[in-house]
Every structure is written in structure tokens, then in C-alpha cells.
Amino acid sequence: MLSLSSVAVATEPVEYFAVFADGAKIGHATFTRHLADGKVTTAHTMEITLGRGILPMTVRQSEICIETTDGRALGFKNVQEIAAMAQTVSGTIASAGKCRLKTTSAGQTQESTIDWPQGALLSEGVRLAQLRKGLKAGTTYSLTVFDTSSLAAITAEARVAGAKDVDLLGRVVRLTEVNLVCKTPAGTLNTTNFTNDECYDQKILTAAAGISLEIVACSREVAISPNEPVDFFDKVILPSPARLDGLASAGSVTYRLAPSSGKKLNIPDLDGQTVNVNADGTVTVTVTRPKAPSGEKFPYTGSDPNVEAAMKPTRYLESDRPEIVALARKAVGDARDTAQAARRIEAFVRSYITTKDLSVGYATAAEVAASRQGDCSEHAVLAAALCRAVGIPAQVVAGMAYVKEFNGRESVFGPHVWLRVWAKGKWFPLDAALPGGWDPGHIALAVGDGSPGDFFGIVSLLGNFKIARVEVQK
């Protein structure tokens, strides 16, 4: 396997960038490119700090890409550190269209193999493709880019807008504007990139979770200057148009969601959640409490490929790890009914995680099992992994949930993560984090296998709509 631990990456010259959110500096990034032995090694790093209520969260990510001089991908290494949790993924691309992976988290390393997406490019390959397409205004093209964070291919549709003078923190430079629409299975993200004649980006503009983000080339001194953390929660917490009482016994809740100007809301239609788009652009979402399933044994023995996939271990749901299997068996006890066992896992996780705060960021199930610490996302990934460990299909759901008080504000909807399990031919929701469990005060925005990349699409939703009306039905 290609060794990435000993790869030489040039320390100079290093290109520095400052990262801004809504005009406040929240971090910095670096880029280096090294040519040796017929290979191009590029390294991107980024470190940002976001406020999460009273607790700031620091996110660090580094990516090393190794390619041939003509842009053929050879290997990569991605390191993600979110608060105290870290995960490293190294990949080697084989000639047979396969990619051999090594994933290290919670002190253990696992090896696996995935299909390498046909035509997928890494950093240098993308730059060379852009050079070949050219920077003439009006030029359009599409590229397949491999995202080393989510280990998935992204389709980037580009349109060259033309050359213009761009302010790089007081230094005005002639650059070319390229508008990108990045499409993934989990959603779409729009960015505006300003690139130089060699197709190295000097300024990037985008928006995530209602926050305007800028990455701007600058001096080292500016890049590493003190940050001004922006409170992420303040941007995405939504006031409820009415106080919602009696959700624990409510049969359903109907919401009218109103998008921000020019935005389109793509809310998933799921078991227990029906979605209708209205003529005025608003979206009506009705969340119904499901009838409690019973009488189904586990492990699941059906043949539905989507349900079968929800029983497999993933990078964040390591359901095959011995410690996860042991916890799952302890939680389930003598239960033989799928719904009963899932309920026991829900209650077990709620009590097992003893330190409930926002200091973790995003952890894998194995990391949560070791630390017994975290917020809603840690509760969800651990519960989903425990379900999968005993053969109960489970997925992780991200969205918004109503709470009477959060971060000093009353009657609000805040970002939340829970899970759903397969029983009696339908998906059944559970919430291991909230004391009262799941209720119809939950609005699902995305479903996946626990990887942050599964929820890529909701960055264009959070902060870009309001809840205009809500009706509770008993």
C-alpha cells in the first residue's frame, strides 16, 4: 500500500488564506504543492472555530493528494479533527478501479476497499482539467471530483463568468470568476471561485447554514491573526410561531415552512413525514406519530437492498467492533422483538452517555462508546451502531426538533440528530438524546449512515427558511 505517512510535502512556499464567516475571521487555511519523482503532492489544511452557544468548537482538516504529473490519482490522506475527536483515512487507488482504504479512529485501524469512481479527480487533476477547459467567459464544463472527506464523488458543474478586479484584503488582483454547482447524493452547494491564470483559487465565496463564508488569499500574518468566532447556533435556531404543548401525546403536527427569498426547499418525504410544495413556494410538512410496531423478530432476514445496507458497519457506525457488539447485547438483554430491542437500545444510550454537552463536535460510535460523552449526534450514531450490531436496520436522521428552551431562547426549533429503525415494513423513529424521546416536533431534513457527508445538503437549508405556521393534532 502506498505509504502516506512518509510523503514529502514542501514547507515552502506555503500559500496562506484567511477564513471569514459573515465578515468575522474564524480561521485560516494553507496550500502547498510539491513536485518530485514524477509525482505531484498537494496539501490543503484548514482550521476554523465556530461558537456553539457558550462552547466554541474547533474543526481542523488536512488533505494530502498524490497524483501523476498529468493528474491521475494515486492516493490521498484525509485527517479530520472535530473538537477532541479525530479520524484519519488513507487511500491508495489501484489500477483495477479499486481504492484500498485504511481508517483510523478511536485508536484502532481498519482496512477496506471501495470502488474508485470512474474519471474521479483529486486536487491537481481538477486544476489541470480547468486549464484545459480554459478561462474564457461563457465556458461551461462538468468535472467528477473525489471528496476525501465523504469518500464519494461530487459532480462539479462550472461556468466561467469572466475576468474582474478582486479585492484580496486590500490587495486588488485581476482574477477570473468561476461559478460552481457541486452536486452530491446528499444535496447541492454553490460556490463562487476567483482563480488566477494557473487555476489556483485565490478567493472562494459560499454559504452554509445561513452563514456567508469567504476564504481569501493573504499573508501569513493575517491568516494566523486572532479569530472572532461566530455563533453557529444563533444562525440556525428557529423561533416557533407558537408554544407547542402536548407533543408527547400528539398524533401529528403540520408545519408551513417559508424559504428565504430565491431559495428552494428540498424536504424529504419519508415514512411518517409527508411533504407538499405549495404554489407560493412554501412547503407543508406533516409529521405523524407512527403506530408502535410489534411482532417482528431480529436480526432482519429480508431482501430489500436498502434495508440490508442499513445493517452494515460504516466509518461512523462501527457496528462490527467488539466493544460495540458487547454494548448492544447488554442493552438488548433478553428482548426478541425488534421494536422492543430498539427501545431498549434507545434507553440504554440515553443513560450510557453520562456527559451531555456540546464539546465533542462529531464522533464515531466507537469514540462515543469510549468517551461516554457528546450531544445529540453522538447519541444517534451510538444508538444506530448498537442496532446494527444485533441485526436491526438503522439509519441516522438530521433535522430540526422543537424544545421549550435552548441556549437562552424559549419555544424554538434547533438542529438535531436522531435515528430510525426498520420494523414491520416501515421506518420507525427513535431519539436517544431528548429525555422524552421522539415526538412529532421533529422535522427530518436528511437521512444517512452517520457520516457528516450524508448531511451535506442541509447546509443549504439551515438558516434559509422559517417556520411560518404550526398546528398540533391530537
| Mean pLDDT across every amino acid position | 91
Helicity, as a percent range:
10-25%
How far apart lie the N and C ends?
59 Å
Backbone shape: globular
Main β sheet profile:
15 strands, mixed
> Would you tell me the structural class of the helices and strands?
alpha+beta
Count of runs of 4 or more consecutive helical residues: 8
Q: What brief labels describe this structure?
A:
C8orf32 fold; 15-stranded mixed β-sheet; 8 helices; alpha+beta; 474 residues; 2 domains; 24 strands; globular
Walk me through this protein's architecture:
The strands form 3 sheets. The chain has a 15-stranded mixed sheet that branches. With 474 residues, the chain is α+β, with helices and mostly antiparallel strands. The protein has 8 helices and 24 strands. The protein starts with 14 loop residues before the first strand and ends with a strand. A hairpin with a 4-residue loop joins β6 (85-93) and β7. Mean pLDDT is 91; it is low at 1-12. It folds into 2 domains: 15-230; 238-473, C8orf32 fold (Roll), CATH 3.10.620.30. Helix content is 15%, strand content 46%.
